[in-house]
Specification:
Blueprint lengths: L1 H32 L1 H4 L33 H37 L1 H15 L3 H12 L3 H27 L3 H8 L4 H37 L11 H8 L8 H28 L8
Helix pairs in contact: 1-3, 1-10, 3-4, 3-6, 3-8, 3-10, 4-6, 5-6, 6-8, 7-8, 8-9, 8-10, 9-10
């Protein structure tokens, strides 16, 4: 009886995670996509006669305005395009590169495994902020370089995850049978290994999108990421920090956008992890 109640509670909690996560990500995603329709004037429209208007005082500026009279809501929605773009593109790049490296290391072993894993160990020993400062000092900042930096910093996670799974799978009967009958390596990798890696990789991808949004915002806040002329959540936080006592809304609303987006993605990631790994659920 207790097991049934526990399983029912676990199932309800999973549904709640999915609903809240999907709602948050869906609403923010739609707002970002249709920001140009909602605010045809754009996020850079300056109105010096409406500087630092408090939120909820004017219908035209629901979340107030910044020191240049630009609408905060419009800038938050426009900044979401950059933050989400960086999050998803950097994760996609990290997945592709890390998965290839992990497959090569785990399937072929030997010198490939040693080279890839030792390079990964060296990179993991470097603090992210040190890597970021060194990278930006050499190649410069900007949108493309920020994405490349995040790919470089996170491919190791996917490589280690994929390598560990491949080391287990390569000794399974279906892989040994395929190799025994002469199936080519690339067919074994594509048809047998990759389908078994999709679940854990997708879970890590979902969680890393949230992480990369935070990292991009942090780098931009420190002046190491996106160009200040491009609206982004981290840039808005940096612009508004000098007005925290007099115009708190300039920084608070971009911060809330980051919080809600990361929360929604983490909830979806937790739901995916529990859904794809039933053994991790409470059973007693």
């Amino acid at each position: 009886m207790r097991a049934m109640v526990s399983r029912s509670a676990s199932s309800n909690f999973l549904k709640l995670e999915f609903v809240l996560g999907a709602l948050l990500v869906g609403v923010i995603g739609l707002a970002v996509i249709f920001s140009g329709v909602i605010f045809p004037g754009g996020a850079e429209k300056i109105d010096l006669m409406s500087r630092l208007v408090p939120p909820f005082t004017k219908p035209a500026h629901v979340l107030g305005t910044d020191p240049l009279g630009r609408d905060v809501l419009a800038r938050v929605m426009a900044g979401g395009k950059i933050s989400l773009l960086v999050g998803f593109v950097s994760v996609a790049g990290g997945v592709v590169f890390g998965t290839v490296m992990g497959l090569v290391a785990g399937y072929y072993r030997g010198i490939w495994d040693m080279l890839v894993m030792r390079f990964a160990d060296i990179q993991l020993a470097l603090p992210f902020i040190l890597l970021a400062i060194t990278f930006i000092a050499i190649v410069g900042g900007g949108l493309a370089n920020t994405i490349i930096l995040l790919i470089v910093s996170q491919w190791v996670q996917y490589a280690r995850l994929v390598r560990g799974s491949v080391l287990t799978l390569r000794e399974r009967e279906f892989i040994l049978s395929a190799r025994a009958i002469g199936v080519k390596d690339w067919r074994i990798i594509v048809q047998h290994l990759l389908p078994n890696l999709i679940g854990p990789v997708i879970v890590l991808m979902t969680l890393n999108v949230a992480t990369n949004i935070l990292l991009e915002s942090s780098l931009t806040f420190l002046g190491l990421g996106i160009d200040p002329t491009i609206p982004s959540w981290g840039g808005m936080l940096a612009e508004g920090r000098t007005y925290l006592q007099t115009a708190w809304w300039v920084s608070v609303f971009p911060g809330l956008a980051i919080l809600l987006t990361v929360l929604g993605l983490n909830l979806l990631g937790d739901w995916l992890r529990d859904s794809l790994d039933p053994t991790g659920r409470t059973s007693a």
